[in-house]
Amino acid sequence: MKRISMILMAAVLVMFAACGGGSKSGEATEGAASAAIETVEAAASSASNDLLAKYAEFVDKAVPLIQKMKTGDMAATTEYGKIAQELATFVQEHQSEFTALTGDELAKYTELSEKLANAAQ
Predict the structure, then answer these.
(1) Which residues touch 80 (CB under 8 Å, ≥6 apart)?
(2) What is the pTM of this model?
């Protein structure tokens, strides 16, 4: 949702910059538009970083519980069930944000997912 609102805000800023009434030079308009785009990209990157940080928290909670479950710790099994449910809900709620990850963000997500999968083996 934040990403959509940031994109819409950037579009509005670009429209205002483009409709400057001819009083501004083309360079000023282009500068305002590129500044707006950079602001949106920075906000989107920040949102992705927050998303990955929250995902990493779930993984960091789950991995030790998985290790304890392997030794037969029933309390860890119960706690892991809660964490797994929370993680599933979180991923489902943020599915569109996860599919929009790019480059380093996607690599970090993959690394975290592999960490979780390796612990479960």
Answers:
(1) 62, 65, 66, 69
(2) 0.60
